[in-house]
Design brief:
Elements (H helix, E strand, L loop, with lengths): L7 H8 L15 H14 L9 H14 L7
Helix pairs in contact: 2-3
Length: 74
């Protein structure tokens, strides 16, 4: 019998809403987003815009995670 429980990856994908659809996506990025972006940007040799919205910061985090040498082994 096939396991009908979704995997964690399936859960994460299903539960994640597109940042463009967030009700608070146009608010300024959170301090946590800023801190994580600064770390990822430093690791990747990139710069970040200080005036990103929550939605923009989320998208930028996704972009930089894909390029971060720190996360390449995951």
């Amino acid at each position: 019998m096939k396991n009908q429980n979704p995997t964690a990856t399936d859960d994460n994908t299903a539960l994640q809403k597109d940042p463009d659809d967030w009700k608070t996506g146009d608010e300024p990025m959170t301090p946590s987003q800023r801190s994580y972006l600064e770390t990822l940007a430093r690791d990747s040799g990139e710069t970040i815009d200080e005036d990103l919205t929550k939605a923009e910061a989320s998208k930028r985090i996704d972009e930089l995670r894909d390029r971060s040498p720190r996360l390449q082994d995951e």
